[in-house]
Structure formats: C-alpha cells, structure tokens
Amino acid sequence: MSSTRQNKIERLLQRDLGDIFQKGTTGLFRGKMITVTTVRVSPDLSNAKVYLSLFPVDDKKEFIDYINGIEGQIRFDLGKRVRHQLRKVPELTFFIDDSLDYIDNIDNLLK
Predict the structure, then answer these.
(1) Domain boundaries in the chain?
(2) pLDDT tens-digit profile of 30-88?
(3) What share of the chain is helix, strand, coil (3-state, %, to 5)?
(4) Angle of helix 4-23 relative to helix 71-82, nearest 10 degrees?
(5) What is the CA radius of gyration of the chain?
(6) pLDDT tens for residues 3-12?
(7) Topology of domain 4-110, CATH
(8) Is 82 exposed, middle or buried (0-12, 13-18, 19+ CB in 10 A)?
(9) Beta strands in 63-109 (DSSP E)
(10) Of 90, 92, 89, 109, nearest to 101 (Cα)?
(11) d(Cα 89, Cα 32) in Å, to the nearest integer?
(12) What pTM does this model have?
C-alpha cells in the first residue's frame, strides 16, 4: 500500500517526465509520441518504475531498450526540474504499458 508521500512523488514524477517526453520528442525520442501512464515509486523512494504508452512505434521492445539506455540523461533532466522537491532523484526503469493494446484486442474479440 502506497503512502501519501509516495503518491505525491509519483504524481510529481509523472507530470515532469511527461513534460520531458513531450518537449524532447523531436530530437531525443525520434519524433515518437510518448505518454507516461503510471509511475510506481518504491517505499524508500530510491527506485521508480515508469510505464509508457508509445505511439507510432513498430518495435516497442527495441524502443523501450533505447529509452532505458538513455535513462541517465532523462534522470538528469528530471533532477533539474525536481531539485527543490526531492533530495535524491530515483533510479528510473521504463516499461511498456500495453493496456491499450489489450483493450483493442478484447474489443476486436467482442465484435
């Protein structure tokens, strides 16, 4: 069960990461539309699991590997934004949020 502090930090990270992905879309993220759907922070606030929804991406696994490869740069940009709210910026791990694909699959099966 998440504490109030964890929930506040999760919302803060989701908002700021979404802004980073939106502003860095042209160069760093190869023009892809990336949405931060969920952020889960560990109880000690040192690790964060970030779930991303990716659009027009053919190979999502390869793109998530690319984003995990530049995690240091994303974390640095995040640190500049949250330096007054957090003492330590959590380690970021990115995952694919495939809930929309799952919903589409169920919708197609029901037709």
Answers:
(1) 4-110
(2) 677 888 999 999 999 999 999 998 887 778 888 889 889 988 999 999 999 999 998 89
(3) 50, 20, 30
(4) 120
(5) 15
(6) 899 999 999 9
(7) GMP Synthetase; Chain A, domain 3 (3.30.300)
(8) middle
(9) 91-96
(10) 109
(11) 25
(12) 0.83
